[in-house]
Amino acid sequence: MFAAKAVSSDHVSIYVSRAHTQFLDFKRARIPAGAHLTDHFTVMDTEHEQVFLYVSDHTIQNSIGHLYVSDTLGYRFAHSLDHITKGERHNAVDFEGVKSIAGTYFANRYDATHEGGTEAYVGSKMRPLSEEDISWHDNLIE
Question: Domain boundaries in the chain?
Fold first, then answer.
């Protein structure tokens, strides 16, 4: 069980309680010190003895946040992915579990450096998208 306690008008502290304590013992979630202040969060998944937690980032104007993954107790979190997108109309985080492969997830990330055009990620660096890349991709689909 998760609960939020307002610390100020733009920041909440997140508290967690587990079933084995009959939800009577709430402990403050430990998120890395570098995490941005936020006024809300979304619990994305609690299977496989870990919690995936989306925390909004109000230092960016778009609906962007960060994904954190907990330890097996669900109290201590580590940063997993940054700049995860969240839909403005439906308020849904772009994070999906793959049903056929337990423990596998997809998430959409916002690329603040992307200027548009035909660029693609290769490893962790961006480079122009070539005709060879397009042909290779087309061959995969056929």
Answer: 2-110, 112-142
Nearest Cα neighbor of 29 from 59, 61, 47, 52 is 52
Q: How far is CA 118 from the centre of its chain?
A: 26
pTM above 0.70, yes or no: no
Position 20 confidence tier, pLDDT thresholds 50, 70, 90: confident
Asked if the model's pLDDT at residue 110 lies above 80, the reply is no
| Core vs surface per residue 72-105: b (16+ CB within 10 A) or e | eebbbbeeebebbbbeeeeeebebebeeeeeeeb
* Strands, E assignment, 9-85: 11-16, 27-28, 41-45, 52-56, 64-70, 77-85
Q: Supply the DSSP symbol for 63.
A: S
